[in-house]
Design brief:
Blueprint: E1 7-15, E2 19-23, E3 30-34, E4 47-54, E5 60-63, E6 74-82, E7 86-90, E8 97-100, E9 113-120, E10 127-130, E11 149-157, E12 161-166, E13 170-175, E14 189-197, E15 203-206, H1 212-228, E16 232-233, H2 241-248, H3 252-264, E17 268-271, E18 274-277
Parallel strand pairs: 13-15
Antiparallel strand pairs: 1-2, 1-4, 2-3, 4-5, 6-7, 6-9, 7-8, 9-10, 11-12, 11-14, 12-13, 14-15, 16-18, 17-18
Helix pairs in contact: 1-3
Length: 279
């Protein structure tokens, strides 16, 4: 079955005046690839990778364009326009992606970007987006472990820090005092690590590895910075956390551990005014 909202590798069955008809030799399903998407060079029998969705007339159609979001996934999309039915998002295809009012966490405005989830509506069999993303996440049955590297999508900010989507399945939190990169924005896809799993299944997420592996990585960052600053950094264990954050993009706790490692290996000298690289 050629399902909408998904990529399919299909065979060119025949060429017509309106485009190419594609299908799967193992089934009787056939779909049109309109002329505007037909490649310059092709032969009947060739295979094409296409994305299938509903066109302006609500008919399944294939396209070689790549959408900004895929079925059962999240993405930050811009609102092209709104009307009495809802909002319509730019997702890289000819027909805009619909978000009904009931699926808007807050009323969407033209020109603004929102994090949404793409799903197939069971009743209408249409692709629909929702900014009420929490309904598609669950921490009831966790699939992650403490210390595991995970894929993150930045969901929204709170007084505590950044709410993130973990492996497209769970909700997690990065505390604001552990965020050292001010460039992180809504919708960003980044790597992180499961710092703690609470009794209520809430996930604490860190952007840095825990333990010695992180210390080694941070120690190298300090060494590189020392070399770029002619062997001296005006930082020590009495430095303000914000100064360490601005210069090295790490927490004071990690900084102190890394400095300790470098000192024990006799790579640096620690003085009142800062850290010196030993030649």
């Amino acid at each position: 079955m050629i399902a909408i909202g998904q990529h399919h590798t299909l065979t060119i069955l025949r060429s017509t005046g309106v485009g190419l008809f594609l299908g799967n030799p193992e089934t009787e399903d056939v779909i049109l690839l309109p002329n505007k998407y037909v490649p310059q060079n092709y032969q009947v029998g060739d295979e094409l990778c296409v994305f299938v969705y509903l066109d302006q007339q609500e008919r399944p159609v294939a396209t070689t364009l790549e959408p900004y979001i895929h079925l059962n996934d999240f993405a930050l999309l811009r609102v092209n326009y709104t009307n009495q039915l809802g909002a319509f998002l730019d997702w890289g295809l000819e027909k805009d992606l619909f978000v009904p009012f009931k699926e808007q966490a807050r009323k969407m405005e033209q020109g603004k970007r929102y994090l949404v989830y793409l799903y197939l509506d069971d009743k209408t069999q249409r692709l629909v987006a929702s900014s009420k993303t929490n309904q598609f996440l669950s921490n009831e049955n966790l699939t992650v472990e403490k210390g595991q590297e995970v894929d993150l999508i930045v969901s929204h900010t709170t007084e505590l820090g950044l709410n993130v989507i973990v492996n497209q399945q769970h909700k997690g939190l990065i505390y604001k005092d552990e965020i050292f990169d001010e460039r992180i924005r809504l919708g960003d896809r980044i790597k992180g690590y499961v710092k703690a799993i609470r009794a209520d299944h809430k996930l604490d997420i860190s952007l840095q590895k825990e333990g010695f592996e992180n210390v080694e990585e941070s120690a190298q960052i300090i060494l590189d910075e020392l070399k770029s600053k002619k062997g001296f950094l005006r930082l020590n264990d009495k430095s303000h956390p914000d100064d360490i954050k601005v210069l090295l993009n790490m927490s004071k706790k990690t900084f102190k551990k890394a400095v300790g490692t470098l000192y024990r290996e006799r790579l640096i000298e620690i003085k009142e005014d800062g850290i010196y690289l030993i030649d």
